[in-house]
Amino acid sequence: SQTIHQWPATLVQPVGSPLSLECTVEGTSNPNLYWYRQAAGRGLQLLFYSVGIGQISSEVPQNLSASRPQDRQFILSSKKLLLSDSGFYLCAWSYGLPGAYEQYFGPGTRLTVT
Amino acid sequence: SQQGEEDPQALSIQEGENATMNCSYKTSINNLQWYRQNSGRGLVHLILIRSNEREKHSGRLRVTLDTSKKSSSLLITASRAADTASYFCATGGGNSGGYQKVTFGTGTKLQVIP
Known about the structure:
The complex is a heterodimer.
Chain A lengths: L2 E5 L2 E4 L5 E8 L5 E7 L5 E9 L2 E4 L6 E6 L2 E6 L8 E8 L9 E2 L3 E5 L1
Parallel strand pairs in A: 2-11
Antiparallel strand pairs in A: 1-3, 3-8, 4-5, 4-9, 5-6, 7-8, 9-10, 9-11
Chain B lengths: L4 E3 L2 E5 L4 E6 L6 E7 L5 E8 L4 E4 L2 E6 L4 E6 L8 E12 L2 E6 L3 E6 L1
Parallel strand pairs in B: 2-11
Antiparallel strand pairs in B: 1-3, 3-8, 4-5, 4-9, 6-7, 7-8, 9-10, 9-11
């Protein structure tokens, strides 16, 4: 069966510090991978998606970047955090097949920028 | 931009009652999904209904889709306290850069009172 891991679960970082959130998927190959941000009590905002190693697409211009160094590893980074980067970050995967719309989410990382 | 909008934003019912949530969207879709999110957790896929389907069932869940009105409803029958969560609709469009584009709504927060 497939599983998705995210870490850390919670993070408190000062403004201007760097960020690295990691997501890994097990039990499947060539998944599509996604990073979302969810503000308190709000819906999901797609930040980045990836259809393959080294292939990253950004949906929203911002202070963040993403990388996919391995097939099942997706990393969200920032060189200098802003207060507005606070939120709940969710990684998700889907099968890399036509018509595969279902997405499977990790447990999330709660980021607080102080 | 958010395509789906759920209604109501919040719903409180007694255990055993039925809960109905609605989702409206603006553009043509290939499918529509419903997800559940328990507080502070990742989203869990519940059900997908394709644009050529009008109704779908899964256990205590019943989903309808009316493409002429660009709306969907999620009915949870005989609700339980464990159904307390936020529920999101997600609309699926065509391909976008090699992946199946999915756009999430803003969610309905359901509270089931024991």
